[in-house]
Amino acid sequence: MNKFTLIIDGNYLLYSTLSVMKLFSKNNEMFLKGNNEETLRKDTNFLLEKLTQIYAKDIRSLGPIIDDVIFTIDDSNSWRKDLYLTKDYKGIQTGLSYKGNRKKDKGIDFSNIFNVFDSFVKGLAISCNLNFKAIPGCEADDLIFVHSSYLNAQGKSTIIYSGDGDLKQCVGFDKGKNTFTIQYQKQNRKLWIDKDTALYLKENQKTYAVDCLRSVVNNTSSKLSVVNPFEIVIEKVLGGDISDNIVPIITESRQYGPKAKKAGQWFNTGIADATIKNIKKEIDFSKFNVEDLFRTDFKRKLASSAIRNFKSQNKYSIEDVQNNVDVNINLVLLHKDTIPSYLYDDIFNWSEETYKKKKCEVQKQFNYKNLLMSMKLYDKKAHDNSSSASIFKELGL
Questions:
Q1: Closest C-alpha to 165, from 341, 45, 12, 22
Q2: Hey, which residues does 161 pair with through a beta bridge?
Q3: Could you give phi then psi for residue 225, rounded to 5 degrees?
Q4: Exposure string over 120-142, b if 16+ CB within 10 A, otherwise e
Q5: Are residues 222 and 346 in the same domain?
Q6: 125 & 261 share domain
Q7: What per-residue confidence (pLDDT) applies to 76?
Q8: In terms of domains, do 123 and 239 share one?
Q9: CA 164, CA 144: separation in Å to the nearest integer?
Q10: Beta strands, E only, 256-316
Q11: Residues 21 and 138 in one domain
Q12: Quick one: which of 277, 270, 281 has its CA closest to 311?
């Protein structure tokens, strides 16, 4: 087996780096709107330095078992935003927009941050032949799903580098090629694999694939964990995803009980985790798979079970709840039949082209200082001046 291809969720790398820099703290003074040119220059240099330091360290950790790196980047105009507007929930008043709860600090100039990140990614491409991609209308999740599936089908295993829990549905095993996709969640030191991959690795302990995974676990101090991708999808279809404003398939207003601090006040509630657990048990979801989500009878089974298990005085139409099941499937499931065909074709064509291209030079990504020299917005002159000044001082000149 060849080494892994590392597919990086560019959005995760950017925002995790900004968090490390404490950019979102109350005392932040970086990238503020109205900052002068000199302050912006310093902020730009600092962000580029942090991005390359974190990136180079991670590549060094994974370097022994990867032979290529692919960068995927979000497009802000996601096709899911349009879907959210056109496929209304039935019996639920949301008044929401897709990912509309992700508010940004109005005082921070995010356009400058994104320009710096663009310079970072393009600099990587120049310095080490790294491939990166954003496709209008697509989220990074779409690119990651299609590209990892394509590589598996070509006999190539992949590692997804992201903290996004939604991407756990992408882990899987290609029985025809004995290849697999795993997810590396750096923030909680987890390596996610599915059951089929776990069984394959158990049966083939003296193989290069297992040696590679041992190397990743050791180098990143991570724990190997098994997840059921279909279960991830089912739970989000039923219970929604608050981070994206995807609501549960049933919600209603209820009052706090007499012993609660907010006694008498109204609040909106959806399907609780315990209820989802009951639904999964009732329908015996282990007998089904992702493809069943496209069957009308299975969607009706989900809707019917949800109505029975959601304790309420209200009467819910099974047609309305089934509609909401369908809406959530289209919003949360990464699949060739949920991604619009014209976008799926674009991603697939990019995957084919990228597969044929020369791989990036992994070892050139180990030294962050070398990477910085290829970043267009990095102020090399200021860097050189500071270095020269130190030398002159040491020489007594």
A1: 12
A2: 8, 184
A3: -130, 140
A4: bbbbbeebbbbbbbbbebbbbbb
A5: yes
A6: no
A7: 80
A8: no
A9: 11
A10: 266-269
A11: yes
A12: 270
pLDDT score recorded for residue 314: 72
Q: How far is it, in rounded angstroms, from Cα 350 to Cα 133?
A: 8
Please state the length of the chain.
397
pLDDT the model gives residue 389: 42
**Tokens read off for 50:** 């942090």
Domain that holds residue 322: 231-332
Q: How far apart are CA 318 and CA 324, in angstroms?
A: 10
Instruction: Name residue 51's amino acid.
Output: L
Whether 162 and 207 share a structural domain: yes
Do 239 and 123 reside in the same domain of the chain? Answer: no
Biggest CA-to-CA distance, the chain: 86
Joined together, the tokens standing for residue 156 give 């190539």
- Residue 82, token pair as written in the block: 């349009």
Distant-in-sequence, close-in-space partners of 138: CB < 8 Å, separation ≥ 6: 74, 75, 78, 79, 339, 343, 346, 347
What are the tokens at 354? 């990228």
Structure tokens at 163: 């903290």
Report the distance separating Cα 297 and Cα 234, nearest Å.
15
Rg (C-alpha) for the chain, rounded Å, is 24
SS3 212: helix
At residue 360, φ and ψ (nearest 5 deg) are -70, 165
Residues of the chain with pLDDT under 70: 1, 93-105, 255, 266-267, 313, 383-397
What distance in Å separates the CA atoms of residue 358 and residue 280, rounded to the nearest whole number? 46
Q: Model confidence over 373-396: pLDDT tens digits?
A: 999 999 987 766 554 444 444 444
> DSSP string covering 111-147, please?
HHHHHHHHHHHHHHHHHH--EEE--TT--HHHHHHHH
- Taking the C-alpha atoms of residue 95 and residue 101, their distance in angstroms, rounded to an integer, is 11
Structure tokens at 336: 């060739």
SS3 state of residue 266: strand
Cα gap 244→359, rounded to integer Å: 34
Contact 360, 128 (CB under 8 A): yes
Q: Which amino acid does the sequence have at 92? A: I
